[in-house]
Amino acid sequence: MFDPKPHWRALRSVWRMLSLAVLLLPILLVVVLGDWTGLFDEAAVPLFGVGMASLMLTLWRFRLYKRALIRAEGLGESHEAASAWAVLHRNQSLGLAAAALPALIALVHYFCVGEVIPLVLLMIVSLGVMLLYRPPAAWVD
């Protein structure tokens, strides 16, 4: 018999670890670089625009994740459920990676420009989109 509880726990753990990484990496960069003046001030607006545009990648990914989530939960404890859970894990990981792109672009933006506000904004946007990939709490015990 197939038990989905370990898979729900794994989905929750992956979501927590990647969310924590997106939260801590910018904080560590600001602490390490301190009062940074930046190397390339002309890249401020284009990099911020690229960071915001990278959110479009997660729209396509979220649709795939949502379908995989519905399919894996719908199969219950059948024999086909293992492959559905593998697809769900892959879609969650790829979706979280796409959701983390604005925060990663924000790191490059901070290195080039040295401004904290765009770093914080893109980090918040990434964390907000990562909430979409959080496994439903009612199903995780």
Write the SSE topology.
Blueprint lengths: L4 H29 L10 H10 L2 H20 L5 H33 L2 H15 L11
Helix pairs in contact: 1-4, 1-5, 2-4, 3-4, 4-5
Description:
The chain crosses the membrane at residues 44-62, 116-133. It comes from Halopseudomonas oceani. This is MFS transporter. There is one protein chain. This protein is 76% helix and 0% strand. The protein is built from five helices and no strands. The chain is mainly alpha-helical. The two termini are 18 Å apart. It is elongated. The chain has one domain (4-132). The model has no long low-confidence stretch (mean pLDDT 88). Helix 1 runs antiparallel to helix 5 (116-130) and helix 3 (56-75) packs antiparallel against helix 4 (81-113).
Subunit arrangement of the protein: single chain
Return the string of H and E elements: HHHHH
> What is the β-strand count?
0
Main beta-sheet annotation: none
Measured distance between first and last alpha carbons = 18 Å
The total of helices stands at 5
Q: Enumerate the spans where pLDDT stays under 50 for 5 or more consecutive residues.
A: none
Helix content: over 70%
The number of domains is: 1
**CA gyration radius, whole angstroms:** 18 Å
Fraction in beta strands: under 5%
What average pLDDT do the residues reach? Answer: 88
Assign the structural class, choosing from mainly alpha, mainly beta, alpha/beta, alpha+beta, or little secondary structure. Answer: mainly alpha
Coarse morphology? elongated
Organism: Halopseudomonas oceani
Protein name: MFS transporter
Transmembrane segments: 44-62, 116-133
Keywords: Membrane, Transmembrane, Transmembrane helix
